[in-house]
Amino acid sequence: MKRIVALLCAAMMAITLCACSGSDKELVMATNAEFPPYEYHEGDAIVGIDVEIAQAIANKLGRELVIEDMAFDSIIMAVQSGKADIGVAGLTVRPDRLESVNFSTPYTTAAQVIIVKEGSDITTPDDLVGKRVGVQLGTTGDMYVGDIEGVVVERYSKGHEAVQALIQNKVDAVMIDSEPAKVFVSQNEGIVTVDEAFTYEEYAIAIAKDNTELLEEINAAIAELEASGELKAIIDKYITAE
User: Fold this and answer.
1) Cα angle for residues 143, 147, 148 (degrees, 5° grid)
2) CA diameter of the chain
3) What is the pTM of this model?
4) Long-range Cβ contacts of 159-162 (<8 Å, 24+ apart)
5) 123-135 per-position pLDDT tens digit
6) Are 114 and 122 in contact (CB under 8 A)?
7) pLDDT tops 50 at residue 9
8) Are 47 and 58 a contacting pair, CB within 8 Å?
9) Cα Rg for the chain, rounded, in angstroms?
10) Is the peptide bond before 37 cis (omega within 30 degrees of 0)?
11) Which of 5, 129, 203, 227 is deepest in the core (most CB within 10 A)?
């Protein structure tokens, strides 16, 4: 009987070890697939710049990429709590976020721009004062607009919801990242972006504070992707030079 119990215990330990090593083979990416061309739905798949960059990094680390689609304002918390290994969602490196997570080497730059209806009297960021501005909850645009005195901020869970609010005259403008803005403008008649960008920023990958080993691995992978030209090729696939 003791021998049988010992064999059963050994088997259970082996199963447990296998389960743990299996999880180590995954790289769980938290994202919000409502942010074209960085991450968006194409049929049943989630595709985009961030997805391809994360896949390239996973390949270099010998891991299987697993994508968890969630609300944008839940991504940092998912990384911080260990629900996800990385957050890749057009995340701007910001001081407030650095209090909760570490960030990788930036992999691209972006800008915050303003979308308005054609003929709008909003032609510069200064014209936002006294206006209703739509933003996606938890984004950099949300933070910046919230700091402008005299602006009424209308927050939406998805970027395209803010754009629809603009089209329906529920807001006077939308603040959002430049590349998604191009997509939304191309898909909807009667809206344009203001010529002057509101601000410029860097995108990077969020990683838990205590996971310095993964941070080093991801930074090394990004450096390799830059050196080989693969990183630029991924971005150029979705964003053409004007």
Assistant:
1) 125
2) 85
3) 0.78
4) 159/34, 159/35, 159/184, 160/34, 160/184, 161/134, 161/136, 162/134, 162/135, 162/136
5) 999 999 999 999 9
6) yes
7) no
8) no
9) 21
10) yes
11) 203
